[in-house]
Amino acid sequence: MEVIEKQTENSLQEKLISLVDKISIASVQDKKNLIKKNDFLLLLQNKDLIFDYTRNKANQIRQENFSNKIYIRALIEISNYCKNACFYCGINCKNQNIQRYRLSTEQIMECCKTAYELGFRTFVLQGGEDIFFTDEIICKLIKSIKEKYPDCAITLSLGEKSKESYALYKQAGADRYLLREETANSEHYQKLHPKNMNHKNRLECLRSLKNLGFQTGAGFMVGSPFQTLDDIAQDLCFIQSLKPEMVGIGPFIPHEQTEFAKFPSGDLNLTLFILSLIRIMFPKVLLPATTALSSINPEGRILGILSGANVVMPNVSPMEQRKNYALYNNKASVNEESAEGLILLQKQLDKINCKIDFSRGDYQQ
Ligand code: SAM
User: Fold this and answer.
1) Is 359 helix (H, G, I), strand (E, B) or coil?
2) Beta strand 122-127 with 153-157: parallel, antiparallel or unpaired?
3) What is the mean pLDDT of residues 110-119?
4) Dist CA 106 CA 112 (whole Å)
5) Would you say residue 41 has pLDDT above 70?
6) Tens digit of each residue's pLDDT (9 = 90 or more) over 250-286
């Protein structure tokens, strides 16, 4: 009996290996070679049988494309005001127990200055959907940063806007935009968001960003409430067809003042496995080892890199405001000085023979 079981396991493992190889050789440009949802699902259902193989392959592809370089981005959390009530997010507008803040232009410019002096050449401006930040204010900010730091890239992560607004940000000089789809399944989307938030619009925003020529980032939380492996397979299909230049994948982590407070965090190994699949699917993609990953495991960053990630985004927001940008509980590096943080990061990277790359780190075709 045991022998038969072992044989079945071996033949399944062979099938999984050939699937991973197929992802690696599939030209994402070629519609005929697209990986089907059921194939992704089979991999996800049997990840333990193929985990090491997938991780090693992803790590090798990262090294072939980026050598030992890890790009860094200076993350500036510009506001925790938000007009949305996403059920999972600690800064959602219904949460009355957090201290709201909004950085002034001067404070944001000061963060850029500190980051520039430390060697960063990409600034990521992230925030809730804060109506104070009109298109005019955002464009003025982009222009001021670009004027002062013409050799730097600007990434925005400010949520859903109209196509016209995105076009204005592009004209003003923004280079990249991060907007996770959160889930590619619209029924699942409605379980994570209130009725006034629209899945179709979120996906439409991503297409607009791509069409406008932004280096565009999609992605989702792993282990968000009600998510199934089938949903994740659907996300992988969505990402495969969108072909984003960046992909943000991190575990869901509960926040005690949200209605998802009692749900468990996303699984570390599943998150790492998905990072590897993304790297294999898109050898050149810009793939962060996220703060959420470091928050569920102190080695999260390094494990993420060893699974194919090639970007880290240290926080350079003003120290006194960091605790207030609490999307979830126990967020990593809230108290870490950015300068100290970089030294610590390089020390961690030394152990895996990697080094910080201080260039802009744009997506290369
Ligand atoms: N408002 C912008 C947007 O909607 O894209 C950017 C800010 S939003 C807080 C950034 C990302 O944080 C979201 O895309 C979401 O995936 C992630 N996030 C929010 N709550 C989280 C949680 N509880 N656990 C893990 N990630 C979370």
Assistant:
1) coil
2) parallel
3) 97
4) 10
5) yes
6) 999 999 999 999 999 999 999 999 999 999 999 999 9
Q: Measured between alpha carbons, how far is 155 from 173 in angstroms, rounded to an integer?
A: 10
Lowest mean pLDDT among 25-34, 43-52, 168-177, 345-354: 25-34
> Does the CB atom of residue 179 touch ligand 1 within 6 A?
yes
Whole-structure pTM value: 0.96
Closest CA to 293 of 223, 353, 228: 223
CA 258 to ligand 1 center in whole angstroms: 13
Convert the pLDDT of each residue in 126-165 to its tens digit: 999 999 999 999 999 999 999 999 999 999 999 999 999 9
Helix axes 135-148, 105-118, angle to 10 degrees: 30
Residue of 221, 295, 317 best suited for mutating to test ligand 1, as the one with most atoms within 8 Å of CB = 221
Q: How crowded is the C-beta side of 13, counted as CA atoms within 13 Å?
A: 12
CA count, 13 A, side-chain hemisphere, 174 = 28
Q: What is the assigned CATH class of domain 37-357?
A: alpha beta
Task: Provide the CB-side half-sphere exposure for 132 (13 A, CA).
Answer: 14
- CA–centroid distance, residue 67 to ligand 1 (Å): 30
Instruction: Provide the token pair at 87.
Output: 């059920």
Helix (H) or strand (E) holding 156: strand 153-157
Write the residue with the smallest CA distance to atom 19 of ligand 1. 89
Q: Quick check: CB of 260 below 6 Å from ligand 1?
A: no
Across-strand partners of 246?
217, 286
